[in-house]
Amino acid sequence: MNDAPSSPDSFCDTEHTFQLHLPWPVPAFSDADEHVPELDPAFRFMPDVTKAILMGFTHNRRVYLHGPHGSGKSSHIEQVAARLNWPCIRINLDGHITRADLIGRDMVVIRDGKQVTEFVPGILVWALERPVAIVFDEYDAGRPDVMFVIQRLLESHGRLTLLDQNRVITPHPAFRLFATANTAGQGDATGLYAGTQALNQAQMDRWHVVSELGYMPPEQEQEILKARLPDLETTTVERMVTFAGLTRQAFQQGDLSSLLSLRTLVSWGENITLIDDTEEALRLAFVNRCDDTERPLVGELYQRCFDAELLQGTAHVSGIY
User: Fold this and answer.
1) Measured distance CA(62)–CA(175) in Å, rounded
2) Burial (CB count <10 Å: 0-12, 13-18, 19+), residue 19
3) For position 317, what pLDDT does the model report?
4) How many Å from the N-terminal Cα to the C-terminal Cα in the chain?
5) Torsion angle defined by CA atoms of residues 153, 159, 162 and 168, in that order, rounded to the nearest 10 degrees
6) Which residue numbers delimit the CbbQ/NirQ/NorQ C-terminal domain (predicted)?
7) Cα–Cα nearest to 175, from 6, 33, 304
8) CA 21 to CA 23: how far, in whole Å?
9) CB under 8 Å to 156, separation ≥6 — which residues?
10) What is the pTM of this model?
11) What is the DSSP letter of 183?
């Protein structure tokens, strides 16, 4: 990042880039560095979510984005960052991420041929001092000791105190903080997201912007599939998206325990291009992880959309059309 500007030095035309008219200019970097996400030209933005993310980049608001898996939460942040040339790093808060990983630790290093102990900063300390946007993925699965490290930073100008170093770090003016999660911080009542937990409400209160992202409208999902997989026939794409919508409706009604996400839709389409078999491609992408008792229903929904058998047996569930 040595050759990149240390602060935004240009502005983004949001009407052209995001089809959004905003009452304030959105800063951007004129040049990209190695930490700027790769731009996906096939990506489609949801206006309300995109506006919330742009508030985060423009006004240094802390943005918490939640919604079902595979709906494009992290991708939305990354693709906004890609179009702003804003360096962006994702950190998955799994059970192995510790306070030391974020803050740093004393380590033995070799200096002038001698072993010496020195403090090696963690990823959070590194990012705080640079024009970088950090995205904490799976935020509602983070360990309590890690979450309290982050809590102080949730203030707009939150400083980080390194007790071992007798040092207080003031965030870089272009440092930004985002989080994505499957829940709104109240815990998971569906059983889909094992490992998530209810978040400290004092911490949730510090997020300036909370936005929810569901699955995209069918038209946008079709556009994404067509853009990413141009070899797929239009009729096939339309039927795939219709099938996905029916499975989600069945999930909402409690008839299915597995959810077919946009990510799974893309995987299904990619499998079709590889093996040229729509039914087998669906089995590999989705059906094989469904409960055995639910597969007849999946087969019925597939037959409605593709007029072809997928599985032996059927299960009639009223109200799914």
Assistant:
1) 11
2) exposed
3) 42
4) 52
5) 170
6) 221-292
7) 6
8) 7
9) 60, 61, 62, 208
10) 0.78
11) S
pLDDT at 314: 40
Two tokens at 101? Answer: 């990983």
**Per the structure block, which two tokens stand in for 309?**
């058998």
**270 C-beta neighbours (distance < 10 Å), count:** 16
> Which residue type occupies 268?
W
Q: Which of 202, 243, 201 is nearest to 222 (CA)?
A: 243
User: Which pLDDT tens digit goes with each residue over 50-62?
Assistant: 999 999 999 999 9
DSSP string, 20-75: ---SS-EEE-SS--TTSPPP-TT----HHHHHHHHHHHHH---EEEE-STTSSHHH
Give the tokens for residue 165: 């170093």
16: which 2 tokens?
Answer: 């052209």
C-beta of residue 117 within 8 angstroms of C-beta of residue 176: no
Do residues 22 and 181 touch, judged by C-beta distance below 8 A? no
Q: How many Cβ atoms from other residues are within 10 Å of residue 194's Cβ?
A: 7
What is the rounded average pLDDT for all residues in the chain? 85
Coil vs helix vs strand at 320: coil
Pairing of strands 63-66, 26-28: unpaired
List C-alpha distances in Å: 54 to 50, 137, 157, 219: 6, 18, 18, 24
